[in-house]
Structures are given as structure tokens and as C-alpha cells.
Amino acid sequence: MPDIYRLTKQIAKYLNHHQVNQVRRAYYYAEQAHLDQKRFSGEPYITHPYAVAVLLTDMKMDEKGLMAALLHDVIEDSQITKQAISLQFGREVADIVDGVSKLAHINFRSRAHAQAENFQKMSLALAKDIRVILVKLADRLHNMSTLGVMPASKRRIKARETLEIYSPIANRLGMHNINVELEELSFSALYPLRYRLLMQAVKKIRGKRELLVKQAIYFFEYELKKNNITATVIGREKHLYSIYQKMKIRRKSFSEIMDVFGIRVLVQKKDDCYRILGIIHSVYKPFPGRFKDYIAIPKINGYQSLHTTLFGEKGTPIEVQMRTLDMDRIANYGIASHWLYKKTKDAELKARQWGNQRWIDDLLELQQISTNSVDFIENVKTSLFPDSIYVFTPKGDIIELPQGATVIDFAYALHTYIGNQCATCRINKQLSSLNTVLESGQTIEIITSNKVNPVKSWLMFSVSSKARSNIRHYLKNNSV
Ligand code: MN
Question: Quick check: 106 pLDDT over 50?
């Protein structure tokens, strides 16, 4: 059952008195709004938004995000409007709640399998505020962890959707912890038998490997101490879904997967990662071709680590990861570590945290020029996928267009013939002109007429190469 006292105690560790009270107020408001509603399990509905908020305290979500988490199903499930929430709790909270509700609606559209990737991108582009995504991911995580009460068919649909849409989003944002949980829950719901078999297989070899890993850890600690390096050495186990994926994609049997168990070394300074690498390579023989320097070249989601695989005792491979505590936090929380890090002043440290890929660079720059976290969040939306917008056909297919695209570009994206004869259009059912610049999330219907032909002025308001080359082609062949 929800325990508002426990929640407030938890957030009082990083929020001030006024902020805690705001969150408390949102809780009571949500409790009232859902008063007569029950979850599928029979529990009072408020248990769900409460649990979503609790999940977000883990990443030290700010008070507005927590309020939105508590209120996230209020517009959807009661008569309460966005305006009412805005009046009570301010525009920012209302916008997040509204964003989460809108994302829920898109789920019900027809969506071809092949479009899943576009859909992920679009969800991100559509969300005006990164907190919308974080609330949505926590919402999905709680729903997945309480999936057991649902009928089997519904469980499978939710699990598949989670694997196609939500866990890749979590991965894209570098949120490893949430991603792992989503994948494990979905895997066990979608393929209960395979999940159980794999779990048993891991259990079976665990005993044997555990000893080996323990010996290696002991040795690591000894060597590091000798070299005056302060480090934490821990054993780790790959999660079942990632083992399953590896078996499937690389067509390998379970016994061929060598990195089920491994070692992680956490240190204070980056230099220590390389020093440790030198030390262990001088004692254990490294597997050729398995060393990866994700510190110098971070993954696109900001992940940084050194990876190597060693020949352990009797030739058994041991995978080792080395990273700093800061990198570890990024590896686990990704974009959400912004909240964990709010107090970090050191710009150079931040630079390393975020890696050097373009969008991460953008984020970093924004973080530095933004005077407060609100600015930062507001700016995140445009930096995730700055070059594209995502719009719908009336049937619900998703079309990707360059930023600044107009109705003309959309028409040509469907078919040259539709472009050449597009007479007028409806955007979200409203009659609109052909030079209207489109925005993500709109639904566009093209009305064609065989009396229409491309004219020169269309070149002034089309940006996609497909539209422009087709218009030019037509004008050249039909000029008098
Ligand atoms: Mn919900």
C-alpha cells in the first residue's frame, strides 16, 4: 500500500521543505481523482502512480517530475482536465502529465513492426520534456512488474511492445538499470519456458564459475594494493535476456557464451583504469581482439569503460570492465544521471561523463549554458533528434521528414504521383495550405486532383530532395 510518509522521507533527502510539500499535495490530489478506481489486481488505483513516483526517486527526480508521476494517469482516467492540473500545480507539471497521456494514445495506433525504430525516435522527438520519457519508462516498468495478474495474451502484447519500443528508448538514453529490468520482465512474460531454461543453465554453471571469479577478484585486489591503487572489485553476472540475444543473434549455444560472469573494477580516476589494464595484461594473457576502449571512444549513449577478456585458469575466459565511479553512474542511469549530478560544477568532469558524440555534446553544451535545470530540460528535446520530424498518414503510418518540411514534402514522400497532383490537405482534420511547415505528431491527409500540376513556386516551400528533384523534373519536361 502507498505510504506517503515513506515517500516524503525519501525525497526530503534531496528536496527542500516546500518541494516536499508540493509532492505531497500532488499525491493527495491523485488519490482523490482515482478514488473509485481499482487496478486489475483489485488494489486501489493510487498504488500505481505512487509506485511510479517511488521508482523515480531512485534517480533523484526533481519535485515537478515526481508530481507529474503521481498525476500521470489523472487526465486519462478521470474527468480532470489539463487546465485543472495547470491551475493547481502549474503549467510545467501539467505539460508533463499531458505528454505522458499523449504517448499512451500513440500506442493504440496501428504500427507495423518495421516502424518500431521510427516510433522510438518519434516518441522521443514528441516528448517536449525529457521527464515525460522518464515518467513513461517508470510507468511501463511498474506495469511490467505487475503483469502477472493479466491474461496471457495481454501479457505477450505488453511484453513485445516493451522490447520493441521502451527498452530501446531506455538504452538510447543510457539508462542501463531500467533497460535491464524491462528486458528481464518482458523476456519472462513473452517466453516463460526459455526464460526458465536459461535461468537453470546459468544456475548450473554458477557454482563452478563463481570460484574462478572469486579467485580472480582476490588476485586483482592483491595486485592493485601492491600498486597503491584504490579500487572496488566486484563480480557481475550477465542478465538473461542479453545472454538470450547473444545466442540468437550469433547463433551460439549456451556453452559458447563466454562472458556470462565477469569482473568490474571501479576506481576514482580515469588514469587508474589504464594502469589496471597494464597490470592485469602483464599477468593474465588477454584474448586477442576483445579489448575495447570505450573511454577514449564512448558509446553513443555516453557509456564509458575499458573492456578486456582474459585467459583465466584452465583457459576459461574472464571478461573485465574498468571504469571510474562517475562513469559507472552514467552507465547505470544515463541521461537521468543529470539529476544525480546536478550539483557537479566541474565542467571537464561533465564532459567526460557525457562522452563526445554529437547529441551528447549538444546536451553538454546546453547543460553548461542553461542557467537552471528547467532550461536544460526544455532544450533536451530538440537536441535528441534535431534533424527530423515524424508525422502520421491517416492510416497511422509514420513518415520521417527533414526539419522544416511542408505538406508538399509529405505528399512526395508518399508517392511521386501524389506529390504531382496534390491539391490541398488536412492537418489534424483541419483544411490547411500546402506551404504549411509540419510538426512532429501531426496527421496529414492529402487531397489530390488530376487538374493540378507542380508549379515553380512549390520549390520555395519544399525541403526534401525527393520533392525538389521531382518538381524540377516535371517543370523541365513540361515547360513550353
Ligand atoms: Mn500509468
Answer: yes
